[in-house]
């Protein structure tokens, strides 16, 4: 305090001017004031960080779903491959069985065809000098009462005519048609050409048809019955120059 001049009355000193606030204080004040306005973005952003764990659950679920789908597709692929392999094996086995069946049937038909062809050729081929040889050949290929029928047709008087005319015959099998072939019986139509030479003429018979029944005995096909169905044409050239033709 100081004395007022001329009065001696003490006068109070003026209060000191406030010191200027430090710059740091202003900054702190601003920092304290800003949360009222800037805290909201932080508050809004917070759920993003908090939701991250929750957001991971759908991602893991999607990964799990994809894994199940991939596993299911892989299982389906394996099943399809296995099924395809099984079908291919079955198809191959069936094809092999069908091939074996066809081969067996083909072999059977070849046996029957061969027996019918050989018999027809032997039946219509002969030589007047050795008729017994023809009969023996036919006896080995036939069964049942065929020899009785053959002897009735070609034995006796017929054999004497063949010898008298010095006849020889040569037969050529052209075709064999098979029907009703199984493991025990069969039927065939055999088409044969025949040429007969005698001391008087040459006779040509075209397309003679023989109906033959066969049976299998002890693993061998035998001729059981024969029926001559006729020929397509017959030509005869007489050695004395008189030709004849019969259709």
Automatic annotation (TrEMBL):
Q: Does the keyword Magnesium apply?
A: no
Keyword set, alphabetical order: Membrane, Transmembrane, Transmembrane helix
Bias class Pro residues marks the residues at 12-21
Q: Transmembrane ranges?
A: 69-90
Q: Is-annotated flag, keyword DNA-binding?
A: no
Location comes to: Membrane
Instruction: Report what the protein is called.
Output: Uncharacterized protein
| Source species of the chain | Nonomuraea gerenzanensis
Ranges for region Disordered = 1-62
Query: Where are stretches of biased composition, namely Low complexity?
Result: 30-58
- Extract one GO cellular component term from the record: membrane
């Amino acid at each position: 305090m100081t004395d007022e001049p001329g009065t001696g009355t003490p006068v109070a000193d003026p209060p000191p001017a406030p010191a200027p606030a430090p710059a740091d204080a202003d900054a702190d004040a601003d920092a304290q004031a800003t949360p009222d306005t800037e805290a909201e973005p932080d508050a809004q952003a917070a759920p993003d960080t908090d939701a991250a764990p929750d957001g991971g659950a759908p991602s893991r679920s999607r990964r799990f779903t994809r894994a199940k789908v991939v596993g299911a597709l892989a299982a389906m692929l394996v099943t399809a491959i296995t099924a395809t392999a099984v079908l291919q094996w079955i198809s191959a086995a069936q094809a092999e069985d069908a091939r074996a069946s066809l081969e067996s049937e083909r072999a059977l038909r070849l046996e029957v065809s061969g027996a019918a062809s050989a018999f027809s050729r032997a039946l219509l081929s002969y030589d007047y000098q050795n008729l017994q040889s023809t009969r023996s050949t036919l006896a080995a290929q036939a069964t049942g009462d065929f020899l009785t029928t053959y002897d009735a047709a070609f034995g006796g008087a017929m054999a004497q005519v063949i010898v008298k005319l010095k006849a020889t015959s040569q037969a050529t099998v052209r075709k064999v048609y098979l029907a009703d072939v199984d493991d025990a019986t069969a039927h065939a139509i055999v088409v044969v050409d025949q040429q007969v030479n005698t001391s008087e003429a040459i006779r040509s018979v075209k397309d003679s048809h023989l109906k033959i029944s066969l049976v299998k005995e002890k693993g061998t096909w035998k001729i059981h019955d024969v029926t001559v169905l006729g020929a397509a044409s017959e030509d005869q050239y007489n050695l004395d120059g008189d030709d004849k033709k019969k259709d």
